């Protein structure tokens, strides 16, 4: 009774009871793939909590000190205060190594969950109207988290992170006209400067997390709660209908258990599997170079793009433009993120589909989109793999030059081949589904006829089975502008759109 009175009193003063009541009864689809985004969300929670712990002990300073801590092999070595505090967290703070590794593993799983969630939304068409804004926010989140991972990875000022900062400096300097000024401003002088770690620290713990704390709830809560949840097609469902479990208590119980599983998995990884052992690398010195150094997986595609690019440069108006650095550093991520951002609008322009969609596509039902997605994965994968071309060459006893050229060919041929093969597979799966609808479902019962031949007994497909494998109707042909003279063809952009539309809905 007292709880009810308190709830009514709060509702009278601040409101929200109506929204809370609707929220508790909101239906959530039960398919397992909808929990992929939860992995990223709960990994983000772990990263935030462990990050707050680390800020109590980390000193973001590049002032030189003489180490006299618990790690004996580095005693008496001159290093930055940032690196010394990283060693202190690792060896002298109770639980420091576990929290450090949880923070690192959590970031990797955070980004991995984001990629899985993004791919699920792409291949099922969850980005279509009315979710274009949510898709753009998701792409922005992916870029921010990737960038913030780079900033955090660079903070300990060890030899490995210093090599990454060296690449960042080279990329910044390669920007025409303003590159050298930007590098001096960012690093606080000639490389390595004296300000890069404090500035990255401010970005890593203040600016980017602040943006994430605004965008993550907007992406995961506000827009999702204001819209109908997406779901896969099945018999009896329509665009405005949803079948699933209520948020309370079913989905709340599931998502709480999922939070504990994600946090437990990160803790287990941090306990059992060593990651980023900065004490083995030593402090960063520009004169030292380490062989076989690799960035975290999410930055591997940039490393690969830099390694694949031929040594191209030219001089104009007294300035040297280093294309071998500028193109991989800007074109590779630019193609990835710009392509992701504009794709929903390009597809809508090609198909002319402006309807509201709450029912998802199966990837096989949209072979062109699926082919483009697999081509993008192959593009990313080739760049990522080529980031370890030296390790591959060493372990497989192949010429480094040969591995580089193999990847240069693969980055051009691989996505095209992946697109063609994927479309072919999708069309084959569609043909199998049509056969199921027309001829029935295989029962596994083999009978022998009077003539001695064997045939399989098939039963008619149920309406539910038919609805789950029947693709949506093809998009109507986009209207071309009318012209008064029939001999005058429509503008080129409309002819291109019509040709793309025909190719898109080819089934």
UniProtKB/TrEMBL annotation:
Residues 456-467 have a biased composition (Basic and acidic residues). Pfam families: Cytochrom_B_N_2. One of its GO terms (cellular component) is plasma membrane. It catalyses: a quinol + 2 Fe(III)-[cytochrome c](out) = a quinone + 2 Fe(II)-[cytochrome c](out) + 2 H(+)(out). GO terms for biological process: respiratory electron transport chain. Its EC number is 7.1.1.8. It is found in: Cell membrane. This is Cytochrome bc1 complex cytochrome b subunit.
């Amino acid at each position: 009774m007292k709880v009810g009175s308190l709830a009514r009193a709060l509702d009278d003063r601040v409101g929200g009871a109506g929204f809370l009541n609707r929220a508790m009864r909101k239906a959530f689809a039960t398919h397992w793939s909808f929990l992929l985004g939860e992995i990223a969300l709960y990994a983000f929670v772990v990263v935030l909590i462990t990050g707050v712990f680390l800020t109590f002990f980390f000193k973001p300073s590049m002032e030189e000190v003489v180490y006299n801590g618990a790690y004996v092999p580095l005693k008496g070595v001159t290093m930055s205060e940032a690196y010394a505090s990283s060693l202190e967290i690792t060896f002298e703070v109770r639980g420091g190594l576990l929290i450090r590794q949880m923070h690192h593993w959590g970031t990797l799983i955070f980004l991995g969950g984001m990629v899985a969630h993004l791919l699920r939304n792409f291949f099922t068409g969850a980005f279509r109207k009315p979710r274009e804004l949510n898709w753009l926010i998701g792409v922005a989140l992916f870029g921010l988290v990737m960038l913030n991972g780079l900033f955090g990875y660079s903070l300990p000022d060890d030899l490995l992170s210093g090599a990454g900062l060296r690449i960042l400096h080279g990329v910044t300097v390669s920007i025409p006209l303003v590159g050298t000024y930007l590098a001096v401003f960012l690093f606080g002088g000639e490389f390595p400067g004296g300000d890069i770690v404090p500035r990255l620290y401010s970005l890593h713990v203040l600016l980017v997390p602040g943006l994430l704390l605004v965008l993550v709830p907007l992406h995961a809560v506000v827009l999702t709660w204001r819209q109908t949840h997406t779901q896969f097609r099945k018999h009896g469902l329509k665009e405005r209908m949803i079948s699933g479990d209520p948020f309370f208590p079913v989905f709340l119980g599931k998502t709480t258990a999922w939070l504990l599983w994600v946090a437990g998995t990160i803790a287990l990884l941090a306990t059992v599997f060593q990651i980023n052992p900065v004490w083995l690398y030593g402090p960063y010195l520009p004169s030292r170079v380490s062989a076989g150094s690799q960035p975290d997986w999410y930055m591997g595609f940039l490393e690969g793009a830099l390694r694949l690019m031929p040594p191209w440069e030219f001089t104009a108006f007294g300035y040297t433009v280093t294309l071998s650095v500028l193109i991989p550093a800007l074109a590779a991520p630019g193609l990835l993120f710009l392509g992701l951002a504009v794709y929903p609008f390009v597809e809508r322009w090609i198909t002319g589909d402006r309807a509201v969609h709450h029912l998802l596509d199966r990837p096989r039902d949209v072979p062109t989109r699926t082919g483009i997605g697999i081509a993008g994965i192959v593009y990313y994968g080739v760049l990522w793999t080529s980031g370890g071309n030296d390790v591959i060459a060493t372990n497989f006893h192949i010429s480094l030059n040969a591995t580089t050229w193999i990847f240069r060919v693969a980055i051009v041929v691989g996505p095209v081949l992946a697109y063609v093969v994927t479309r072919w597979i999708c069309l084959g799966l569609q043909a199998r589904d049509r056969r199921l609808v027309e001829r029935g479902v295989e029962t596994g019962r083999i009978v022998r006829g009077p003539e001695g031949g064997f045939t399989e007994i098939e039963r008619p497909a149920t309406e539910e089975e038919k609805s789950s494998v029947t693709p949506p109707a093809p998009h109507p042909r986009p209207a071309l502008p009318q012209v008064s003279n029939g001999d005058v063809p429509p503008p080129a952009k409309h002819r291109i759109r019509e040709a793309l539309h025909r190719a898109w809905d080819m089934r």
